[in-house]
Each structure stands twice: as structure tokens, then as C-alpha cells.
Amino acid sequence: MGACCTTGDDEAQAFGRQVNAGMDKRNDVQKAMNILFERNNTFMKLDLRFKARELPNIDSGTKTDSFCVIFEHIKDPGNPENGQWIERGRTEIVVNTNDPSFVKTISIDYYFEQDQEFLVLLHDSDNFENDTISLAGTNYIGQNQFKIQNLVCNRDKEIEIPLHDKEGQGAGTKGYVTINYEEELSCTNQDLKLAVSMFEGNFVENRAYFIEISKIKPHPSNESIKIFRSEKCTFDNEALIPFQEIIIPVDCFLCAKNAGINIHEIPLKITLREYNQMGDHKETAHISTSIGNLLNGDSLITLAGTTHEHTFSLKRNKGQLVRTHSFLDYISNGCEMAFIAGVDFTGSNLSGANGLNLHSTSLQENQYFNAIQQVSSILLNFDSDKQVPLFGFGAVVDRRYYNNVSHCFALNGNSFRPEVQDIGGIQDAYMNTINNVQYAGPTFFAPMLKKWNEMVSFECEKNTKKYYTFLILTDGMIHDINDTVEQVVVSSRLPVSIIIVGIGNANFSNMVFLDSDEQPLFCKNTQSFSKRDNVQFVKFNDINKNGDNFEALARETLKELPRQMIEYFEGVDIEPSDMGIPDPNLEVRDYSSYKAMELMSSPHFASEGNQDLVQKVIQEGIADPDTIEYSAFNLSYVNNLKL
């Protein structure tokens, strides 16, 4: 049997969802690359629009002639408190009103993984050529700063802020400014999705082939510009070998001259090439067609061989145009991004770099806390209650009752209600834990991931408008890799992304394996593949080599998150407008109630008295279900709890 395969060399030659970097037609290629980049990364274009109210009178005898100026704070990587303000644009001047609505928008670049701060100034000018005049020649009205995250998280897509003076005084006395945004979307906002297999013809057994798709420039040029190249597949006479699903934004096919054309009439060319390891890939066959014919025509796509005596057929297994949604489409319709974190307390942390404890009580030197702080500073903007379930693993938590290592315990002491409030709660719970547990081992991820997956699964039954980020911080190798892979595969079917941050300088090869960008993870336990790539691994010291780039970690760890969120929701057919619509027939259950019922039905608690006791223990939050379950054979522990 033949098999699809992709190698590192293939990636270097732009196989998969890439654009061939060796094309001669640089302008068209760059356009296609920009489209793919914007779709698959966290960079988004926003148009900001402004209006103001209750501005003070600046001119004598007339009302204010005002305009807005927008600056962005560009931080110094070594010292984020410093930096410079760069002007991003100005509105037109609206004359003789204290309640202006500005027509001109200002375009900015929004990066999900960055903490971006902007400054809006309002000035009065009697010179209407405000794009060229110096602000020093105008009359200052007021100003205020805002974070772009606060704007995009608002379901109404707008915020209102009071204006104050340059010293930050007199808020509201200078008026108010409202800022709203619209995302700059592509022309068509659609993807061409196509799945094809090698079917019949003059294919050669055990040789590898790949396909290219090109756009066709309008007459009189009629030039073909390559915009897609698949992975290579090895032909087998006994099997239909499918290429990986082809996904191309329709905008990649458009030129200035055919921008208004019907999508189904857009011409394209499919070329079949025989793979050559030296890079001289021989053209085997091709066909010129259109998107409409490709989608609605015969399921067999017959390509004419270059020697005119051979033909090759590809079988179309699937073909459709799919409307795409952006990250901000989901956010503006109410999607929240919940955040769960787990911290490694295994014994190897006590002998980290230079023999130092990686859980340093000096937070400035503590990579664990710095990593949580950087990631949470972005994610908590998208979480309305800002409650973070915070766990640890790899330590003995309480030796009074048992001498076993816990691989999933709550840092606030209550695994049943593990949430802490905002970054302050994270700091308090973490600092309270580092000196109050016995560092042990080994490093197991699976128990914690299993619990988190259960929590998300139950939450999904009553709330479809949350996406979860699991943040795991660890200093070394995983010792339950097969069970961990199983839980990662489970999470790939849930609204979950997993971020793993390596602390210190240990061997992180297992983490790199979990971050499987080239091929899906395969679980030996269940004989199943992950549904999507939802793991990102980053080594802290690689990102922050000099110890002074305080925001680089958040940028690196979170850059794939918007794409992963979109892939999940599109994969389960949840539209932005569908989010949060409850099922009226659904019996709402929460995770805690389920665990309580599960424990009370256990044979170890068969008697009525023990069931009542367990219920009371859980309701009071004195012990969590996992602790009680572990102590099932030692009822004296439960009976001695102070109720």
C-alpha cells in the first residue's frame, strides 16, 4: 500500500498550504502570500472610527473645529515601560460642533498575542489641511489612552472613554470620545476546499507525485501564477491514494482585472508533477478549468499528458466553497477565552540552572510566574469573570493523611473549586504553594489533562461559546507520554488549545513531539489520530535569552491560538451567530454534581451514612472528589474531617 508522506525538504519547497517562493511573478505571489498569512496568523487589519461629545468650546464665538490623532505605543523589548509613541493616522476636521462624528477611519494592525496601547488626542484647528500641519500649531483639547484588547472584546465593538488633560486630570471635563472598529476582510471571504485522489492513467508504481494549482491572469496576458502546491504522494496500483485536503482562499485567484467576476467563472490550472528529490519536478499532465467546473463537473478530472499520448485522472472526493469567519467574528458574537493553568512541582525544580530552585521566591527571577503572567495578561482580556482554575502536579500536598504524589492538585487548596481571581489571585496561590508542598515526581501530564478535558466536556453541554487554553509549565521530560498523547487526542476534539512552556534547560524532546506540526498525533492506546493540531510548545530560555524581553513569550505562545479556535468552531459547524444558543431540552449539569453522584455510587460508599458524608464534604469544599476517592479504603480519614 502506498502512503502520503511529507518531508522536511518538502516543507522547504513550500509543500502544503504554502506559496512557492521561487515564482517569477513576485507581485502576484506576494499578494497570495499576504492573504494566506493574514488567514493563518494573528495579524488583523482594523478600521477605527471616532465620534466625540461634550467637547469644550475652544474658539471664541464658534464651536469647536476638532480632529482626532491616533498614536500607538511601541515598546522597548528590553524595558516595556519605555518606548515611543508613533502616529498612526488622523481624521478629517469636523467644523463648528461640540459633538463631532468623524467619517475618515484610521487603519491599524491588531495582533492578538500582543498588549497594544493607543493614545487618542483631540485638537482644534482653523487650518483644514490637518494631515500636514504640526500639532504645535493647533489647540489642544484633551486625550486618553486605551488598549485595543478592551475594544475588540466588547460585543458592541465600541468603547467610550473620557478625555482628560496632559497630566491625567479633569477626566470628563474635556468631553468624551467613542471608538468603534470594523475588521478589514478579504474581498470574497471564502475558501475553495478540494479533496482529490490519484485514480487512473499512466502513473508509475512507487513513484511520488504532487499537484500544483495556478491562477490565470485575464486576457491578453493569460499567464499562470502558481498559488498552491500539495504534499507528495506515492502511487499504488491497489489503492486510491488521497492528497491532503486542499484549502485555498478564493482571493488568491483574483487579479485587479477580474475582481468583479463570478466566483464560479474564475479560471485556474491544475498541474500534476512527478516528484524529484533534486528539485527538477517533471510536469506530467495538466488541465485548464474553472472553479465552477471543478466543483460541479464530472468527479473524474482528466488531465492531458505533456506527451499527448498519456492521460491521468484525479478523482474529486469533495469540492465546495466555504464561507470563512475571522477570529473577531467569534469574539464580537460573545465567544470568551477561558484559561486553565498547571505548574510543575517535581523534585527536579530544586536543582535547576546553576543549582537554583526554579520556583524562586523572587518573582522577578521566577520563570514560572513570569510565564503565567505574560500569557494571562493577554488571555484574561477575553474572559469576563477572570477566574483561572490553577493546578499543580508532581508533589506531595499533605503528608498528614497519605504519603502519595498528587498529579493534579489545586493551588488554592480546593481541587473542587480551583479558581483564583485574576493575576493577583494567581500570584497569591502560587506563592503560598511553593513553600508548602514536598517536591517529588515523576512528571505526569495525563491525570491533569484528563481532569481538564472532563471539565471542558461538561461545560460544553451548556455553553458553546467558550474556547479554552490549557497552559502547562514544566521543567523536563514527561514520564507518561502514551497516556498524555491519549489526552491530547481527546482535547483535539474539544474547544481546547494546549500551550506548553519549558522552564530551565532540561531535555524537552517529548514536548516537541507533542507539538506535531507536520503530522497528526497518533494515540496507541485508542488507535486514533488527533483531529487537529492544537498544541504549541515554547522553551522559555529560547524566547527570553537575555532575560529582558518581557513580552516575547506571549507573542510566541499565543500566535497560533486564533487559527486553532477558528478551526475548531468551523470543524463542528458553529457559526459566530450560533454561539451561545442553548438547547431548551438540555438538562443542565455541572462537573461538580456529576463527580459527587459518581462518588456516591461507588461501592466503597454504599451505605446511606457514607453517601451523606461525602455529599457534605464536597458541598463544604473541605476536600475534593479525587482526594476522597483515593481515601476510599481509609474511611477514618473522611470521618475525622472537621465538618
UniProtKB/TrEMBL annotation:
One of its GO terms (molecular function) is calcium-dependent phospholipid binding. It holds the Pfam family C2. Residues 25-163 form the C2 domain. InterPro entries: C2_dom (IPR000008), C2_domain_sf (IPR035892), Copine (IPR045052), Copine_C (IPR010734), VWF_A (IPR002035), vWFA_dom_sf (IPR036465). Belongs to the copine family. PANTHER family: C2 DOMAIN-CONTAINING PROTEIN, COPINE. This is C2 domain-containing protein. It comes from Euplotes crassus.
